């Protein structure tokens, strides 16, 4: 029986994880559920799943949950950063699903890595921010990190076992790999007229053609910043050089990414676009469990198509690739700027096309000194957020 903590339990990945656990109750039990402010959802999850602990990051939300939870529910309610750190590091925990959205996931995800837990990584932003520090922490503690992000999960599945066992430090060339082909659907605006992009609304941006996801990652998919963050995520997980990583637009999202080998072979992982597949893969690796996902029907799929990315349409993608080449300071700045600009867009304070402009200005203007500690990373993140907010206020 694997004892699990779900960070981001009230979100989209949280729901998919709970669904996979529901299909395999003999193998997994929920030790703790963690969320930010959504009391209604957490209350429902506590009643349905009866975790030992429900942790609300927001202290007022924790108080409200305590008032509303039936007496004798058996669920302990906690709040506070130190308490969250203790929770993920607890000897009662085997596996941590890291599915908080954004930089807010960094500290608890890193705490789980440092405590040597098996970490199922959905929160790509934490790896984008902490890069080498994350990988070093993983190596030091012996934590097994498994990629939940569907592309990275597909790449992981398409790589040999010797590489799978050496995530973060792998030698792709030594394993005969020539390229990693990171696929992306191109999002809802792949074929929209370029001059219509500035008028796109949050509702339009969040309407992804293939995947159902949280609002931040949905906007990131529309700008293709998501593919950019994934490019950086792949750089760290698979220890790639820029030459080894290519982005391929694949509108159907049936192939979830591919690995091209020296001899001309291309290995891919395919499936319906449903996050329960990569989640189930990570939960049970190296075994296979029932995810509840419909089998892929090739006759319904019909055609698979591929395009080169258009950087004029998707400037955020080229910003991310450039930032990745520059190094960890630039990727930390870009991630922070993007969280602020996307939040402003979702609040109707910014045009869709201004997201890339704010991100680019932050990359050009925020002064970056080298990052040697977690404190440095958090300071650069905070400084960038402040600068991005100032820029947005002037628009
Ligand atoms: P979501 O918006 O649906 O859920 C976010 C979760 O994070 C919620 O449970 C929320 O309570 C929690 N959260 C938000 N702010 C927090 C804070 N300050 N402190 C603690 N918890 C906080 O997001 P999602 O779509 O489930 O995505 C979660 C993560 O997984 C993101 O990093 C995303 O990039 C990644 N991911 C998601 C998908 C997907 O299909 N949804 C696919 C690949 C990767
Ligand atoms: Mg992805």
UniProtKB/TrEMBL annotation:
GO biological process: isopentenyl diphosphate biosynthetic process, methylerythritol 4-phosphate pathway involved in terpenoid biosynthetic process
Cited InterPro entries: DXP_reductoisomerase, DXP_reductoisomerase_C, DXP_reductoisomerase_N, DXPR_C, DXPR_C_sf, NAD(P)-bd_dom_sf
Residues covered by the 1-deoxy-D-xylulose 5-phosphate reductoisomerase C-terminal domain: 145-238
Domain DXP reductoisomerase C-terminal: 270-386
Binding site for 1-deoxy-D-xylulose 5-phosphate: 124, 150-151, 185, 208, 221, 226-227, 230
Record pathway: Isoprenoid biosynthesis; isopentenyl diphosphate biosynthesis via DXP pathway; isopentenyl diphosphate from 1-deoxy-D-xylulose 5-phosphate: step 1/6
Annotated binding of NADPH, by residue: 10-13, 38, 123, 125, 214
Binding-site positions, Mn(2+): 149, 151, 230
Superkingdom of origin: Bacteria
Catalytic activity: 2-C-methyl-D-erythritol 4-phosphate + NADP(+) = 1-deoxy-D-xylulose 5-phosphate + NADPH + H(+)
Cofactor(s) the protein needs: Co(2+); Mg(2+); Mn(2+)
One Pfam family matching this protein: DXPR_C
Keywords on record: Isomerase, Isoprene biosynthesis, Magnesium, Manganese, Metal-binding, NADP, Oxidoreductase
GO molecular function, one term: 1-deoxy-D-xylulose-5-phosphate reductoisomerase activity
UniProt key word Transferase: no
Positions of the 1-deoxy-D-xylulose 5-phosphate reductoisomerase N-terminal domain: 4-131
Enzyme class of the recorded protein, top EC level: oxidoreductase
E.C. number: 1.1.1.267
Biological function: Catalyzes the NADPH-dependent rearrangement and reduction of 1-deoxy-D-xylulose-5-phosphate (DXP) to 2-C-methyl-D-erythritol 4-phosphate (MEP).
Family as reported in the entry's similarity comment: Belongs to the DXR family.
Name listed for the protein in its UniProt record: 1-deoxy-D-xylulose 5-phosphate reductoisomerase
């Amino acid at each position: 029986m694997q004892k699990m903590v779900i960070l981001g339990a009230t979100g989209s990945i949280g729901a998919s994880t709970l669904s996979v656990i529901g299909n395999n109750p003999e193998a997994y039990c929920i030790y703790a559920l963690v969320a930010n402010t959504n009391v209604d959802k957490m209350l429902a999850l506590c009643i349905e799943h009866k975790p030992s602990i429900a942790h609300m990051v927001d202290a007022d939300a924790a108080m409200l949950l305590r008032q509303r939870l039936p007496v004798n529910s058996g669920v302990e309610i906690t709040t506070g950063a130190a308490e969250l750190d203790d929770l993920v590091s607890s000897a009662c925990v085997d596996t941590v699903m890291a599915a908080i959205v954004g930089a807010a996931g960094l500290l608890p995800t890193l705490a789980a890595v440092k405590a040597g837990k098996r970490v199922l990584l959905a929160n790509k932003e934490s790896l984008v921010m902490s890069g080498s520090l994350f990988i070093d922490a993983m190596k030091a503690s012996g934590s097994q990190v498994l990629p939940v992000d569907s592309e990275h999960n597909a790449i992981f599945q398409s790589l040999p076992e010797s590489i799978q066992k050496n995530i973060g430090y792998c030698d792709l060339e030594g394993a005969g790999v020539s390229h990693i082909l990171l696929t992306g659907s191109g999002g809802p605006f792949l074929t929209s007229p370029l001059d219509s992009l500035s008028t796109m609304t949050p509702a339009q941006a969040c309407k992804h053609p293939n995947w159902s996801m949280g609002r931040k990652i949905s906007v990131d998919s529309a700008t293709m910043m998501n593919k950019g963050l994934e490019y950086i995520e792949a750089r760290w997980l698979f220890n790639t050089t820029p030459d080894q990583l290519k982005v391929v637009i694949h509108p159907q999202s049936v192939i979830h990414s591919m690995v091209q080998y020296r001899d001309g072979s291309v290995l891919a992982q395919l499936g319906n676009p449903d996050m329960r597949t990569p989640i189930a893969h990570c939960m049970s690796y190296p075994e296979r469990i029932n995810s509840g996902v419909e089998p892929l029907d090739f006759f319904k799929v019909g055609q698979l198509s591929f395009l080169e990315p258009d950087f004029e349409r998707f400037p955020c993608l080229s910003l991310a690739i450039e930032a990745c080449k520059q190094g960890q300071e630039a990727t930390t700045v870009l991630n922070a700027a993007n969280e602020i600009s996307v939040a402003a867009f979702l609040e109707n304070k910014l045009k869709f096309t201004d997201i890339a402009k704010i991100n680019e200005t932050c990359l050009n203007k925020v002064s970056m000194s080298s990052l040697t500690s977690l404190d440095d990373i958090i300071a650069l993140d905070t400084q960038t957020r402040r600068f991005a907010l100032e820029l947005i206020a002037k628009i």
